Amino acid sequence: MWLMKAMNNSAALEKRKTIENPLKRKKGFEYYIKRDFLLYLMLCIPVAYIVLFKYAPMYGIQIAFKDYNIFQGAGKSPWNDFATFKQIFSSLQFYQVVRNTLVLNGLDLIVGFPAPILLALLINELIWTKFKKVSQTILYLPHFLSWVIIGGIVAQLLSPTGMINSLITHMGGEPLPFLTNKYAWVATYAFIGVWQNAGWGTILYLAAMTGIDRQLYEAADVDGSGRLGKIWYVTLPGIRPTIVILLILQLGNIMAINFDRPFNVQNNLVMDFGDVISTYVYRVGIQSANFSVGAAVGLFQSVICLIFLLTSNFISRKLGDNGIW
Amino acid sequence: MKTKALKLTSILLVALTIASALAACQSKSSNGSASDTPGGTASGTTNDTASAPKEHRTLTVEVFDRGKPGQPDLNNNFWTKYVNDNFGKQFNVTVNFVPVPRAQEVDKLNVLMAAGQAPDIVFTYNQGVVYNYVQQGGLAELDSVLQQYGATLTNYLGDDVLKYGKFNGKQYAIPGKRTVLAGDNTFIRKDWLDKLGLPVPTTPDQFYDTMVAFKEKNPGNVSGVIPFGYSLQPPYPGLGYIPEAFKPSNLTEEQFATFQAQPIWMSNWNLPGYDKAVQYMNKMYNAGLISPNFAIDKDGKMLDADVSNGKVGAFITNWDGPYRTAPGTLTNLKKNVPGAELIPIDPWQNDAGKHPKNGYSPNGMYIIMPKSSKNVDLAVQYLNWMADSKVTLFLQNGEEGVDYNMVNGVPKQTGTTNSGEKMMTVANNLDYDLLSNGIELGDPQKNAAAISAGYPGFEKEVENALKVGMTDYYSLYYYSSPNTADAKYNSALTNLSAQMLAKLIVSKPADLDKLYKTLVQQYMDQGGQEVQDEYVKNYKAQNSQ
């Protein structure tokens, strides 16, 4: 949403630039307020939302640096000289969950990120629109299933006595430890992610593809390019900005991991790889009411995410692509 | 042009941020003063009350909202009217009930406490939460109030129960009384035993052989037979009662207190013999005797299904597990496999020939009163009124002749409390009758009879299960001061225990010893040793006085 708005704004500005007289460039603050009063008023609503629900709660971050006492409140609890952070950084489990988060997210980046691009390319090549629409819808559907349900399905399908393993044993094979061996589990985790998200991820790419100028394809035809050639020389370069932006966003989230997915798919045999920051924060921060620890780990995670986001944005700009801002 | 517009928007943004931050601060400070004012006036009213004791007051009491379909208004129904018509009239008080969602009870309680808006009487089953509040100084001290107003209450609960509400020598909580102390039972398919002509196993070795026989002969003729059904549930990582069989019977009190500080169905890695119990389980796993899905079955639902489908030979669960209406394991099993029969057995015999069973301590939920409450005296008077056996009988059963009839001294429900205004959202109305956790008729034998009446169709079985479950019953050692290291590490260690157990059970028998040592060392390093040391310290302190 924000991205699209930003794009629209800059496009509009671009247009105005060409129309307006350069002599009247210097306009006061009030001029714009007056001219676009209603627009600013409308903008106030999302801004207020962000401020109220995203910035104001940051007041509570201070409990990460305090011995939080719920009866005294965040403001009056005593400062604790980074004792919370010292405790976290000296705990072995913390490093394990950070490593796991990076590994699982890295894997998602390698496997999960290209998947929707490939899928979008395939869908884009379909000519029969009806089939295209139907297959697209079917591909979206898993996105709307909650992870609790997916967790249940996965357990039923992939457990040692699950459907797939029953099939394998009936055909005379050995059951595969999809969920019970930690290495196999990581692969299962990545695959489920692709299954759930690939279809949904195609939406943006397909939208970007429709924006590609048809004339380019015609020109490619004239130059004697085949299907693959058109994909490689027209479609992919056409959606490159979209890919870059989404890649930056995902890199920015490399330390942030969604809670439901690992929590519902993990089990005690694979916790060496399955325990991640979000499940750790839930367990330590919420379940055992160590709010300071939970807040500190969350803050640490956010700071790392911010660093990643800024770095990847910086690199992308250096390489000549547009960053996200 | 572009930069100008950007500047403008950022100025706007900053302005808005500041404005809303200011607004937030303002609302904060006004909140502060608002909460100050009632405090001031309230202290005034307390003084007034002291001079004129019959001034009308309002008492707020937490009630669990279980979200049962068709439940009445939890603050305006048959039971709340009874409370207000009796206690209310007698003490010139209006009692208001504040519903709290059952599933988010602790979260919600934290919020209410933090906001200083908790009802005068709140409760939780979670000892850690109570201890946290005590440490943070948020609870009212009850010693003097209890002495002044709580004669019936103290008498009903007795020191055995009340002591669980003491922290650092002071009474901060009033524990409810648990009337059923049984923990778990081991169940076996009697029809399978009969079919194979096997006796009921009474030792771990016999049990193992029976499981092997179940596996090899598959008496139920099912595909994928599971001789011993087991699920490793992360919040309760343990081996049921199996460790009881391997625990030496001659532990000293100190060893018992410090090595088995958690219930036996959790993981007590320091407990002598625990390694043997793990080894036993490992042997069963490697012989293909236990549920292959035990680690994936995080909530025990797969196990329930396997039992209901007649695949499981034996399993350990709550003492009344199969007889409960939810999930209705035995009912479903009988439907799926006509002639199926489950009986509670006692195979975990120790070196002294006994079958010890760790059960629950006699305390139920912790009833606490926030320090911010101005009605602590009234709250204790309320509980004191509730401790009266007549009141308890009414709150748990309703009106005699209408809602229940006395049969052999045991109330038999007529069914009027299943719906409408009189609906009990939980058996025996425990959400309103706070003091007893389970039916309370003032006599253990009557209680047992009343309990089995609560399992229609399985009365005899339940009576027997309770008897087996209470054979050689014992409860954990009582510590008068809580373990601060445990409070800190408990959730991390519980989680670690679950991972350790999973790894140990599936390990190759040859590697087990080494793996066990490495993992236990890890456990100790990650806080286990600290917890252990504090138990020893607390034990010594408690017994030197």
Describe this structure as you would to a colleague:
The complex is a heterodimer of chains A (325) and B (545). Chain A is mainly α. Chain A has a domain at 92-318: Orthogonal Bundle (MetI-like fold). In chain A, 72% of the residues lie in helices and 0% in strands. Chain A contains 17 helices and no strands. Chain A has helices at 2-19, 29-35, 37-55, 73-76, 83-89, 92-112, 114-125, 129-140, 147-158, 163-170, 182-210, 214-222, 227-252, 260-265, 271-274, 277-287, 291-318. In chain A, helix 8 packs across helix 11 (182-210) and helix 13 (227-252) packs antiparallel against helix 17 (291-318). Chain A is flat and about 75 Å long. Chain A starts with a helix and ends in a 7-residue tail after the last helix. The mean pLDDT of chain A is 85. Chain B folds into 2 domains: 54-180 and 364-442, Periplasmic binding protein-like II (D-Maltodextrin-Binding Protein, domain 2, 3-Layer(aba) Sandwich), CATH 3.40.190; 184-358 and 475-544, D-Maltodextrin-Binding Protein, domain 2. Chain B has 545 residues and is an alpha/beta fold. Chain B is globular, with a radius of gyration of 27 Å. In chain B, 48% of the residues lie in helices and 13% in strands. Chain B has 19 helices and 16 strands. In chain B, helix 16 packs across helix 17 and helix 18 (484-506) runs antiparallel to helix 19. In chain B, the strands form 6 sheets. A 4-stranded mixed sheet of chain B has the order 3-12-6-15. In chain B, strands 8-9-7-10 form a 4-stranded mixed sheet. The interface between A and B is large, with 48 and 55 residues.
